[in-house]
Amino acid sequence: MQPHHDRTLVAWLLVGWCGFLLLPWYAQDDGFFSLAWLNAGLFTDRDYASGLAQGLWLGRAWLLPLLVPLLLPLLALRQGVDPARRANLLVLAGLLGIAWLAIQGLAVNHRGPADWLAPFVPDRSRQYGMGAGAVLVALAFLFTLTNGLAGRGLVKGDRFVAGSIGLVVAVVGLFVFVPVGMILARAFVPDQFAGQFFDARIWGLACTYSTVRCGVAWNSLLLAVLTGLSTTLLGLAFALIATRTPFPFKRSLRVLTVLPIITPPFVIGLAIILLFGRNGTVTQFVATMFGIEPGRWIYGLPGVWFAQTLAFTPIAFLVLIGVVEGVSPSMEEAAQTLRADGWTTFKTVSLPLMRPGLANAFLLGFIESLADFGNPLVLSGDFDVLATEIFFAMVGAQHEPSRAAMMALILLAFTLLAFWAQQRWLGRRNYTTVTGKGDSGVPLQLVPGLRYTLYAVTIPWAVLTVALYALILLGGLVEFWGRDYTPTLRHIIAAFGVTTGEHGIVWSGTAWNSFTTTIAIALIAAVPTAAIGLLTAWLLVRQEFGFKRAFEFGTMLSFAIPGTVIGIAYILAFNVPPIEITGTGIILVISFVFRNMPVGVRAGIASMSQLDKSLDEASLTLRASSFTTMRRIVLPLLRPAILAALVYSFVRAMTAISAVVFLVSANYEMATTYILGRVENGEYGIAVAYSSVLILVMLVVIGIFQLLVGQRRLGRRTAVPVAAPVGAAS
Amino acid sequence: MSVASVRFENVTKAYGKVVAVRDISFAVEAGTLVTLLGPSGCGKTTTLRMIAGLELATGGRIFIEGQDVTHLPATARDVAMVFQSYALFPHMTVVENVGYGLSVTRRPKAEVRERAEAALATVGLAGYGERLPAELSGGQQQRVAVARAIVLEPQVLLFDEPLSNLDTKLRRKVREELRDLQQRLGITSIYVTHDQEEALAVSDRIIVMNQAVIAQTGTPRELYEEPASRFVADFIGDANLLPAEIARVEGGRATVRVGTSTLELPGRALQPGAATLAVRPHAIRVHPQPVEAANRMSVSHAIYLGSHLEYELDGPVGHLFATVPAGGAMIPQGAEAWVTFDERSVALVPG
Questions:
Q1: Which of A319, A565, A660, B156 has a CA between 20 and 30 Å from the CA of residue B139?
Q2: What is the 3-state secondary structure (H, E, C) of A350-393?
Q3: pLDDT tens digits, residue range B237-292?
Q4: Is the pLDDT of residue A721 over 60?
């Protein structure tokens, strides 16, 4: 077994050496994946040269010390080195390498070397952002370090686990903590701290006794609690109907509940306004029929809550469907044989077993609502919330970065509170219901009373959703909703027109550029998001290590930070070397990965804590490495979670707006920012038409994902033998 | 000297301040079945998991076939384990489960299939390969778990309470099957249970554990007849623990007084003075009439159980629980009785 682990190490060392010798050290203007360096002089050109060449004869001598940690592991690989000594050498090499990479990166920037380094290097020395070579060298150092730590007995000496933890810690630290630290450092002004914190605009309660507005913190908290509750309850209702009832339209139900999250921002808000606003269809209808004066009630808490519930119920649904399916039928059967009737069984056994899922769903809804930007922007009226206030404080006319940071801190505190409450509520009970024994039995069908109550709640909701989407689809096909209902295709043609010119097909529509960019970036981002998310979940559920709680919090943190803050933070942190990626597509991908990763983590944790741990252990004792165990046992049993993570990551990336607004550039415009531009110009037709095209595309992609991931094979007997093969269970 | 299959040298496992296993040493000879027996929380499962590599020792060294495996992870150890919950992979068929260990070690597909089928035949499940675990009964699932473990021909086979999910009748049958299989394959096995009868039935040797340390090691017979402590005497088979007095020791034989009786017992290197006697229930003779040197006692419970009678007796020597072959008349509850001891089933207990 020992040689096998050494092979992995040798491979990473080779990667590191390649990075130092054969790849351009610095980021290139032509783009990360451009191959221009191949004939531009890998060893001679100041822009394209490899690390070694830069250090030896291009005046960047500060790169040469990296040779030490690159050579050090070779000592460890010699025959007959004591394992403890080998491990220590590797740890030393990894630490030295990472430390020097960081020191030289911060000491020498785009303006030139720091004072202490200046005497040793030529005058005009400076460096750009890290390129392919530097990234590979950094990775090699990281895995050398984790390999050494595993060799010292960390995490039971498991190199794969150690490497995984190292990787997650490194990337989360780099792309979550560094940017956040950056923005806090920039905005934190010591003298004004107390004044900022006790600002009545944040904590005021004046609205309870006067007409003055309440503080944004209270508003956000109220909205988040309401949204968390409503989405969890609705999500549970849909999940129960989809799995525990003979409801005839279960499959369409699934599609329906997925619709709202594949909807671009502003669109739900716009649709709600078009229906319930002062000039809205419903409002006008009610006014004409019953003579009720049209009001502006939709602008404010009711409207935002309504829109957020529409938007986030599917998240709760996606989380809860896996949980409801995971409840062992034999436990319900056990309860029934203990004289519990159907309702009592549901109340005392099924529901408590779903508690982790319910808590997760509530937590997700709560945090989503806090961070939501698009819906409050359109619908909040006078009901200010933190997310939009932070945006206005940062980029608005006020420009108060320290106030924005203060509100970000408060937002973070709320999230912590939600996190803590969830841990307390779940307690330490064992919820393992999918055991290694396999499970037979028929899932309990809901009692009629409960079933019809659920129908009564969900069917109107579903009908409303259909109406909203019909409106979105039709809205793009008429001249001007609310005024001129003449059918037309001109919005579609303006955005997605294709003509044939003398050189073949011409993509003449104005939306094509942003459309293709969006699809490409969303697809690219989905895979690492799901991978890192599930890897993190696996580490959290299955591995023991000292700083697990801190690790869990760290990986969840990016979810709590509003996209607006992340956007500004990324610009501040990654605009200058050593990591210089603003204006590239990479920064968009990275922001999506770390914004959406927590969903994968949560879904993975919820599903994985229902898998018997001895399944993993059995695999390990059967000679499978922890990597093989993950690939062949854990992942196949986690298909619903993988599906959720992939789908959610993709659609979030396609529909994200808050962080993206800051990160797009001329080369990489996203669909949402394009739509935002059209909305700002009052071109609702094009905005709505573009949105409906996006929705259709996302539906297709989700369908393909569903086919690829397939179903979990648990060998349970199904209640309805003719159950649909694909749609009925995931 | 043959190399022991499994050897522990001063092994300790601590979780922070809680010590699960404290400084234990033992050796398991090749081809034998050794049971780790003890009440729950005694450290027996932790010990088993340390052999598997699922837990790493925090002190001491562990050897398998002479190789130091103390720091090797589970993957790298040549052991296989049958889990209490069986841990059959629910998304794989029976034959995929059994062949898993071979397929992850990159054996050719045909060989995997062939050896998996052979292992299934060994446990009497030929023809069940295409089923899913959920489609098998508990006993069948258990046998799949065994087949999955033996297919790799490991140096050591570990059983973690393998019978606890089976009903009693099946338990006896499966227990015999496991023992037969182990002897047929001659595979070194380590077995964890809290059921002393199960341990006596299947083991070559038993390691009794209590409160993180080894209480006694020996053959089933040694443990029963020469318990090293009050704990072992009480845990292995029932025993009446009585205060007694060693009058003198001569040539390894001790003369022991208990109440009005005097017994000649193996001295077990004890000194004259106060001592404890372990008296098996069936070593007690209960007489309705006075006999020489008998202890006079009163019968507090008398129960007829077909093949034998059970008495509970009280008297100056303490409280006794006795089983007597049925046949004679039963002494009624509340009556007086005279008690003597059969020296063959009485042992002095150190400590």
A1: B156
A2: HHHHCHHHHHHHHHHHHHHHHHCCHHHHHHCCCCCCHHHHHHHH
A3: 888 999 999 999 988 899 999 988 899 999 888 889 888 999 999 999 999 999 88
A4: no
- For residues B281 and B206, state if they share a domain: no
Q: Are residues B165 and B249 in the same domain?
A: no
Residues of the domain holding B323: 239-349
Interface contact B86-A624, CB threshold 8 A: no
Q: Measure CB to CB from residue B73 to each of A156, A622, A715 and give the nearest one.
A: A156
Give the least confident one: A36-50, A134-148, A422-436: A422-436
Same domain, B209 and B295: no
CA distance A208 to chain B (A): 52
* Same domain (yes/no): B263, B197: no
Arithmetic mean of pLDDT, B317-331:
88
Residues A316 and A233: their CA atoms lie apart, in Å, by 8
pLDDT tens digits along A373-387: 888 888 877 888 888
Identify all chain A residues contacting B13, using CB atoms and an 8 Å cutoff. Answer: none
**Distance separating alpha carbons of residues B255 and A639, to the nearest angstrom:** 73
Query: Residue for token digits 């060449």?
Result: A53
Residue A722 has pLDDT above 50, yes or no: no
Residue B335 resides in a domain: yes
Of B230, B249, B267, the last residue of a domain is: B230
Instruction: Give the number of A-B residue pairs with CB atoms closer than 8 Å.
Output: 124
Task: Look at residue A486 and tell me whether its pLDDT is greater than 70.
Answer: yes
User: Chain A residues with CB inside 8 Å of B138's CB?
Assistant: 437
Whole-number Å distance between alpha carbons of A663 and A657: 10
Q: Looking at the structure, do residues B194 and B276 belong to the same domain, yes or no?
A: no
Q: pLDDT tens for residues A688-713?
A: 888 888 888 888 877 777 776 654 44
Look at chain B and report how many structural domains it folds into.
2
For B58-76, the pLDDT digits (tens) are: 999 999 999 999 888 888 8
CATH number at residue B252: 2.40.50.140
For residues B92 and B208, membership in a common domain is answered with: yes
Q: Which domains does chain A have, with CATH numbers?
A: 2-152 (no CATH), 203-432+439-481 (1.10.3720.10), 494-499+501-709 (1.10.3720.10)
Weakest-pLDDT range from A381-390, B166-175, B342-351: A381-390
Distance CA B191, CA A354 (A): 36
Q: Tens digits of per-residue pLDDT, A112-127?
A: 777 777 777 766 667 7
Q: What is the CATH number of the domain that holds B219?
A: 3.40.50.300
Is B90's CB within 8 Å of A622's CB? Answer: no
Give the C-alpha separation, A216 to A429, whole Å: 37
Q: Are residues B244 and B325 in the same domain?
A: yes
CB-CB under 8 Å, A619 with B105: no
Distance from CA of A322 to the nearest CA of B (A): 16
A94 to chain B, minimum CA–CA distance in Å?
Answer: 22
Work out the average pLDDT over A258-282.
76
Is residue B31 domain-resident? Answer: yes
User: How close, in Å, is residue A149 to chain B by CA atoms?
Assistant: 13
Find the mean pLDDT for residues A125-143: 87
Sort out which chain A residues have CB atoms less than 8 A from B74's CB and list them.
Answer: 617, 620-621
Residue B1 lies in a domain: no
Q: Does A442 touch chain B (CB under 8 A)?
A: no
Q: Which of B209, B230, B251 is the last residue of a domain?
A: B230
Greatest Cα pair distance in chain B: 78
Residue of A nearest to B92 (CA): A713
List Cβ neighbours of B95 (8 Å cut-off, separation of 6 or more). Answer: B113, B116, B117, B120, B129, B130
Cα distances (Å, whole numbers) of residue A286 to A300, A307, A459, B86, B278: 20, 21, 22, 64, 92
Quick check: A617 contacting B, CB < 8 Å?
yes
Please indicate, yes or no, if residue B202 is contained in any of the structural domains: yes
Residues of chain B with Cβ-Cβ distance to A620 below 8 Å are 53-54, 73-75
Q: Return the residue of A nearest to B58 by Cα.
A: A153
pLDDT digits 0-9 by tens, A597-620: 887 887 788 788 888 888 988 998
